[in-house]
Write a structure and sequence with these properties.
S-adenosylmethionine decarboxylase; alpha+beta
């Protein structure tokens, strides 16, 4: 008979704060001013406030929380933001307790991928902000989405990890996970983390690990975990806006491919690359 793992018996509420932050980048080659403008318009429509709100609803469903309030805004000339307040406990009304979904899932195990989502959400907040931009000369446009999932108590933002990676399907992803504060058990002992983790990569699905190169920078004694991901391979047609590789001379294809690779590497390592490098 398999023995059930011992559960930590707490004194009062679990006061640990678990925060998962993403910087997600999508890159596109836009050769002309018209293409750059149309790319920004496309991104603004594809990831407008309504679509981002829908994505955050799925995040809340996956981690098992209750939504308290949602604020969203599209910006002029570009970009959008959504802020969602969440809580771990059911929402109480005068004579009714409203709980979205069925059961709260407090596990840190990898959550479902986009084709298998069950519902509901609870504590702290989820935010997303988008930043479309274009290079003034080289013809590259980028779309960045900053996402923060911060929870208190038993629910874990790590369950939303795989869904967020898949739903944005990005070229580069930078992730930070941190556990803050402490909680006490019934004996008065402090606990500064309530689950095992030595890398964010432990919670990333195998298909994602196969597609991306990853590096870690972790500070274990501070419960701070940092992982960066960049695609191992790419097809140029996926980065050309309103044109295809077969429409371009072979020499131009090589130049674009080289510049695109440099653009991705610079974002991944967080520094500009010069001829001396």
């Amino acid at each position: 008979m398999q023995r059930k793992p011992n559960k930590l018996k707490l004194h009062g509420f679990n006061n640990l704060t678990k925060s998962l932050s993403f910087n997600i980048y999508d890159i596109c080659y836009t050769a002309t001013e018209k293409q750059r403008r149309e790319y920004i318009e496309y991104i603004d429509e594809e990831y407008n406030a309504d679509r981002l709100t829908s994505i955050l609803h799925e995040v809340s469903s996956i981690i098992g929380a209750n939504i308290l309030n949602v604020a969203h805004q599209d910006y002029d000339p570009q970009g959008a933001s959504v802020t969602m307040l969440i809580s771990e406990e059911p929402i109480a009304t005068d004579k009714l307790v409203v709980k979205e979904g069925s059961m709260s899932n407090s596990s840190e195990k990898p959550g479902p991928l986009p084709d298998s989502i069950v519902s509901h959400l609870d504590k702290s907040h989820i935010t997303v902000h988008t930043y479309p931009e274009s290079h003034p000369h080289k013809g590259f446009s980028t779309f960045r989405a900053d996402i923060d999932v911060s929870t208190c108590g038993r629910i874990s933002p790590l369950r939303a990890l795989n869904y967020l990676i898949h739903v944005f399907d990005s070229d580069i992803v930078t992730m930070d996970y941190r556990v803050r504060g402490f909680t006490r058990d019934v004996h008065g002992e402090k606990h500064f983390i309530d689950h095992k983790i030595n890398s964010i990569q432990n919670f990333i699905s195998q298909d994602t690990q196969d597609r991306y190169q990853m590096i870690d920078v972790n500070i274990y004694q501070e419960n701070i975990f940092h992982t960066k991901m960049i695609l191992k391979e790419f097809e140029l047609d996926n980065y050309l806006f309103d044109i295809s590789e077969c429409d371009l001379p072979k020499e131009e294809v090589q130049i674009i491919r080289s510049q695109l690779q440099q653009e991705m590497v610079e974002i991944f390592y967080g520094r500009n690359i010069t001829a001396k490098d």
